[in-house]
Amino acid sequence: MTDTVPRVTPAPPDTTGLEPELQEAVTALYTDGVVGKKGAFSTEWADQLREDIEVAFAEALSRPGGAVGRGTKRYYVEMHPEQMRGWVELVDHPWVRGVCEAVLGPDYQIVELGFDVPGPGAKDQPWHRDFPMPDETKETGRLTSLAFNLTAVDTDEDMGPFEIAPGTQWDLPEGFEHEMFPEKELYPRFLERAVRKYPQRGDISARSALTLHRGTENTSQKSRPVLVLGVDAPGAGNAEHHDMAVTREFYDSLPERITQHLVCPVVDELTPITQKHTIEGLMMGDA
Ligand SMILES: O=C(O)CCC(=O)C(=O)O
């Protein structure tokens, strides 16, 4: 495939000495912009994740501003680590830790925990980035953040799978509304490259949120809840867009190798998160 659009020249970090699986992950993130690890967790672990998402989703829907629309029959909810029983295992998973460190450096910061719920009847989203390309990426060719996704259910063809256009993390945002939403004239470029993903319970993926992607039409009767863990390199600035917090008791129970990556407030009591109104909501419409 030829590249006719202006792009950033990628400058991947040195991976000498890393184990092959991590070298491959870094290469994939700098080429395709997405990489997966199958069966990182058990199906029971993923079922527990689904239960926790269901509880958090019901709670979020029960109050104003608890969930934000991301298009027809789609919601996004941000939550606190303590609302998910498997959070410690997730952030302590050797592949998650290894990929974060290899791509974002030893001082990476865990900044976001949330989930998307595309329900029955969800439509194709517009192709998008989750935020504009940071100047550092434009100027240096380095990725400064990662999004990890974990599906809470096995993904079937008719459930509106996640679709991604490999390599497009480097496209300069020319003709992108709000630097995140490419004009429709650019869609053929993404459709030509598009890959649909069918993750199963226990699988993890990591991607650059700059790689153009979208949720597709869900024609089934099933929801497809998917967890998002957002991680930054120091200075990437995404923490300020999130409201994640932990209690003192929880914080004190964590090993230092986890707390060293937490930049969120440590509080006496957790407050339910009111979702921020984002450009994504504006562009994708209400649920
Ligand atoms: O459907 C998905 O898996 C992702 C949805 C998404 O990208 C979004 O809501 O911003």
UniProtKB/TrEMBL annotation:
SUPFAM superfamilies: Clavaminate synthase-like. PANTHER family: PHYTANOYL-COA DIOXYGENASE FAMILY PROTEIN (AFU_ORTHOLOGUE AFUA_2G03330). Keywords: Dioxygenase, Oxidoreductase. Coiled coil: none annotated. It comes from Leifsonia williamsii. One of its GO terms (molecular function) is dioxygenase activity. This is Phytanoyl-CoA dioxygenase family protein.
